[in-house]
Specification:
Length: 263
């Protein structure tokens, strides 16, 4: 756990250094505020428009969490099927990887046409972004169990359900969390990307991506920077929450989590 706290502290220090460099560049090179506003101006606009910023952030959070959660559920189910049938895995696994190359710009109009603009469409786009890494990592965890352990279970007359529940699934948890860590950041990117194309179901109400489009149209550079910083903070929050839950579930029994926690 100490190592996790140190990671958070290091991230905060790096962020402070980046803000300092940002301020120095603006100050030394006299960059116009309409191009790159100074950090204090961004902080002031974030405080002044906090209710609006917070409302946008909540919408994006809901969409990202929905897409991430759906990808975990569907991804694990697909991985279980892949692990159970090598033929199905060899046939369909390459197509799951192709999900990462899906051009959102091309399919966003179709999603909007099928579902309509707003939260549902954006959540679906975030789900598409996250799904591949969940399937790939969980499948790898399920099929990479030591064969000697499988034979040991069979020697004790364990059923396939017992092998799955007591051996394969616990063994795959670290792999699953690797996929979730990757997808936690991608979920935010997917939600914002979806908002850029799918927009909002109501004029004037939308997530961070929708607000970014509005700020760009109004040349509100300082508020645009504030939105970007808020989205970055959301991605970091997702990542560290996933790391916390990984430690919570694994540190008492899995060697990788125990090593990282310093025990």
């Amino acid at each position: 756990m100490k190592q996790r706290l140190m990671l958070v502290l290091n991230a905060a220090i790096v962020f402070a250094v980046l803000v300092l460099v940002w301020w120095a560049i603006v100050r030394v090179f006299k960059v116009p505020p309409y191009m790159v506003p100074p950090p204090m101006q961004v902080a002031k606009i974030a405080v002044a428009r906090f209710p609006e910023l917070w409302a946008s952030l909540l919408i994006t959070t809901e969409e990202a969490v929905g897409g991430l959660f759906a990808s975990i559920v569907i991804g694990v189910l697909v991985a279980l099927i892949f692990a159970r049938s090598p033929w199905i895995r060899r046939t369909f696994f390459p197509y799951t990887i192709l999900l990462q190359t899906v051009p959102i710009m091309a399919i966003a109009p179709l999603i909007i046409m099928w579902i309509g603009p707003g939260l549902s469409s954006v959540t679906l786009i975030a789900f598409i972004f996250c799904l591949a890494s969940i399937i790939a990592n969980t499948t790898q965890g399920l099929i990479s169990v030591d064969e000697n352990l499988v034979q040991l279970f069979l020697m004790h007359n364990a059923s396939q359900a017992q092998i799955l529940g007591r051996l394969r699934l616990p063994h795959s948890l670290p792999y699953l969390f690797v996929g979730i860590r990757i997808s936690s950041g991608i979920a935010v990117i997917g939600a914002i990307t979806g908002e850029l194309f799918a927009g909002s179901s109501q004029v004037g109400q939308g997530g961070v991506g929708y607000s970014i489009l509005y700020a760009m149209a109004q040349l509100q550079t300082a508020y645009l920077f504030a939105l970007v910083m808020a989205a970055t903070a959301l991605g970091f929050t997702f990542f560290f929450l996933v790391m916390f839950f990984e430690w919570l579930l694994l540190h008492n029994w899995h060697e990788s989590a125990a090593r990282q926690s310093g025990s």
